[in-house]
Amino acid sequence: MVIAAKKLSEMATHMAIAFTIMHVMTGSVAFGGLAALLEPAINVMLLPMHERIWNRMRSRSGMPKAGYMTIALQKLSQLGMHMTVAFAVMYWATGSMAFGGLAAVLEPICNVIVLPLHERLWSRLQAGLVTRATVTVAATAA
Question: Domain of life, per the record (predicted)?
Fold first, then answer.
């Protein structure tokens, strides 16, 4: 239940970032809403394929699963995919390569800043839930 709530919250945060960037750049709530729906949805659909491709590449080449270079390359390719999607959505919506390029840079940067804060908040929330559950069990047992 907590995992589902966390994932929903993460998706809502991602959508809010996409909406805010598009709205600020275009002044349009409609374009903001379009970006908020399309960009995260496309990324969510592409990410499992990206992971499968990397798993296949690792198994064929004998790459270590957790080697620093492997992780760095995978994250860089994930960033490239994310930037491409942000560019494509903004370009498709506005017809402007300048807006597309700006979105391709801003949106991943905002995600890199905001999503770790989101993760930290959820870690604290989960730790609090575990502590409360432990206290409740201890009080019930006494």
Answer: Bacteria
